[in-house]
């Protein structure tokens, strides 16, 4: 469904954008607000300015779905440089050390990757957006503080090298550039994977390129660029059926759901289930509670 500046406003739903390099996620939200003529737009998980790729925006009442969508898994394609470290663990930060990596063998890289797959404890980059005492970690670092963040549990289901290139960096350091693909849970920092891979190989590592190709069921092939004249908003009902298990209700059940009431004796097909009125209107997300179903979030009045 195409939507622009119309008197009735854009439909509630999801807009999938291919974020360009050099733009913040907030700037992309600002673009969408201008194009669609509404301020009620948010995003399901940020991308760093250096990164490109899939950014999922919620429009209208679909912004309330974003917290649920942000919890899904993601896929990235990235370039990791072994042999150099930066203060930010990516190419935007100042170079801090450069021991080089020309002698790193393919077998050693594969062995190191094994320990970075599965459920792992990962220490985020100190310049992440995680809050420490109510202040973003990156803000503390920029003000001169030394910040040590606590490890967090993440899951990396795929971490695979696609190509290797041995080269000499601009400062004369012999480095290895690896093109990799990563499937991971929400909250995983790919630049931390680059840093930790370098450390496991007895050298340094940082990220030089990052492109997100998937967020849950939303893929790069459907993402729209910022030059698009008429953006396409996927309606909220279609998004709900695509992202969650679904259940079609009776008229009586639908009336109860509109008030957020418990549905006694209702068996749900999933932990978070999108429930619909008989005519197809998306009403709410419900979850199991014993033999009943209870509201997690209601999207209609």
How would you describe what is shown here?
It is a single chain. It is elongated and about 70 Å long. The protein has seven helices and 20 strands. It is of the alpha+beta class.
Topology, please?
Blueprint: E1 2-3, E2 13-19, H1 25-36, E3 41-43, E4 52-59, H2 66-69, E5 74-82, E6 85-86, E7 95-97, H3 106-114, E8 118-122, E9 131-132, E10 135-136, H4 137-142, E11 152-168, E12 174-184, H5 190-200, E13 205-215, E14 218-219, E15 231-232, E16 234-235, H6 236-243, E17 245-248, H7 251-257, E18 273-276, E19 282-289, E20 292-298
Parallel strand pairs: 4-13, 17-18
Antiparallel strand pairs: 1-15, 2-4, 2-16, 3-4, 5-12, 5-13, 6-7, 8-11, 9-10, 11-12, 13-14, 18-19, 19-20
Instruction: Report the CATH superfamily of the largest domain.
Output: Pseudouridine synthase
For this entry, what is the oligomeric state of its chains?
Answer: single chain
| Gross geometry | elongated
Mean pLDDT: 91
Compute the number of structural domains. 3
The biggest beta sheet reads: 10 strands, mixed
The helical percent reads 10-25%
Question: Treating each run of at least 4 consecutive H or I residues as one helix, how many helices?
Answer: 7
Radius of gyration, in angstroms, nearest whole number: 22 Å
How does CATH name the architecture of the largest domain?
2-Layer Sandwich
Strand content: 35-45%
* Low-pLDDT segments, ≥5 res: 1-7
Task: Summarize the helix and strand pattern as letters.
Answer: EEHEEHEEEHEEEHEEHEEEEHEHEEE
Distance between the termini: 24 Å
- Helix and strand content put the structural class at alpha+beta
Function: Responsible for synthesis of pseudouridine from uracil-55 in the psi GC loop of transfer RNAs.
Enzyme class: isomerase
Keywords: Isomerase, tRNA processing
Protein name: tRNA pseudouridine synthase B
């Amino acid at each position: 469904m195409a939507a622009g500046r119309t008197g009735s406003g854009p439909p509630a739903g999801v807009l999938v954008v291919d974020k360009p390099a050099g733009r913040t996620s907030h700037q992309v939200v600002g673009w969408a607000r201008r194009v669609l003529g509404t301020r009620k737009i948010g995003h399901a998980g940020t991308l760093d300015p250096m990164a490109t790729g899939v950014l999922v925006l919620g429009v209208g009442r679909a912004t309330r779905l974003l917290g649920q969508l942000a919890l899904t898994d993601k896929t990235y394609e990235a370039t990791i440089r072994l042999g150099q470290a930066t203060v930010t663990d990516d190419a935007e930060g100042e170079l801090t050390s450069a021991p080089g990596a020309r002698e790193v063998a393919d077998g050693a890289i594969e062995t190191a990757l094994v320990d970075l797959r599965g459920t792992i404890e990962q220490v985020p980059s100190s310049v992440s957006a995680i809050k420490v005492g109510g202040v973003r970690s990156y803000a503390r670092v920029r003000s001169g503080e030394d910040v040590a963040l606590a490890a967090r549990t993440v899951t990396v289901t795929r971490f695979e090298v696609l190509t290797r290139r041995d080269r000499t960096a601009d400062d004369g350091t012999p480095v290895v550039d690896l093109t990799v693909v990563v499937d991971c849970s929400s909250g995983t920092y790919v630049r931390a994977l680059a840093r930790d891979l370098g450390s496991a190989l007895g050298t340094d590592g940082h990220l030089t390129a990052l492109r997100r190709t998937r967020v849950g069921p939303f893929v790069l092939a459907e993402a729209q660029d910022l030059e698009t004249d008429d953006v396409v908003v996927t309606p909220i009902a279609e998004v709900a059926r695509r992202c969650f298990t679904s259940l079609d209700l009776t008229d009586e059940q639908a009336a109860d759901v509109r008030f957020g009431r418990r549905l006694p004796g209702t068996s749900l097909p999933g932990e978070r289930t999108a429930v619909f009125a008989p005519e197809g209107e998306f009403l709410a997300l419900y979850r199991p509670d014993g033999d009943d179903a209870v509201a997690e979030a209601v999207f209609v009045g």
